[in-house]
Amino acid sequence: MTLLTVRIGPTSFTASLESERAPLTAAAFLARLPFEGQLVQARWSGEAGWVPLGEYDLVVAYENATSYPVPGQVLWHPPGLSEAEFLVPYGSTRFSSRVGQLAGNHFLTIVDEGGGLAEVGRRLLREGAQAIC
Questions:
Q1: Cβ neighbours of residue 78 under 8 Å, at least 6 residues apart?
Q2: What are the tens digits of pLDDT across the range 39-57?
C-alpha cells in the first residue's frame, strides 16, 4: 500500500493510493507528483471540493468509477464529457456537472480520523479556495 500526504489549506491528511482497485489511474497520478492546485467548492456535486483541470489528462480510461463517493474517496474525471477534475468529497456527494451525472475513478482515499474533511468543507464555504498539494 502506497501512502501519501495530502495537504488542503493548513490541514494535512494521510491518503492511500488505490493501486489495486484503480492501478492505471494510481500509477498515472503517482508519475505526475508533486501535484499542486486549488480546491474550490463543487458547483453541482454536493458536499465536495473540486480541482478544475481543463484539458489536463492522465490518459486513463474509467476504472473503479463511481458517482457516489463517500467522504475521502478522491475521484479523477478525464476531459471530454466535462472538463478534467479531481473531486474531493467531505460529506454527502453525488458527482455531477452541468451536463448531468458523472462518474470518476476512485484512485486515492484520504484517511479522516479526526473530522478534518468536514473542517475543509467549512473553510471552502467560508473562506473560498484552498491550496491542495
A1: 57, 58, 60, 61, 84
A2: 999 989 999 999 999 888 9
Give tens-digit pLDDT for 4-32. 999 999 999 999 999 999 999 999 999 99
**What residue has cell string 484517511?**
111
Contact 69, 108 (CB under 8 A): no
Listed in sequence order, the residues at least 6 apart from 79 whose beta carbon sits closer than 8 Å to its beta carbon are 53, 54, 55, 56, 57
> Is the pTM above the cut of 0.85?
yes
Reported residue count of the chain is: 133
Q: How far apart are CA 104 and CA 24, in angstroms?
A: 13
The helix/strand/coil state of 121 is helix
Rounded CA gap, 111 and 114, in Å?
A: 9
Contact between 7 and 110 under an 8 Å Cβ cutoff? The reply is: no
Alpha carbons 112 and 96: distance in angstroms, whole number:
23
Neighbour count for residue 4 (Cβ, 10 Å):
15
Q: What is the pLDDT of residue 1?
A: 83
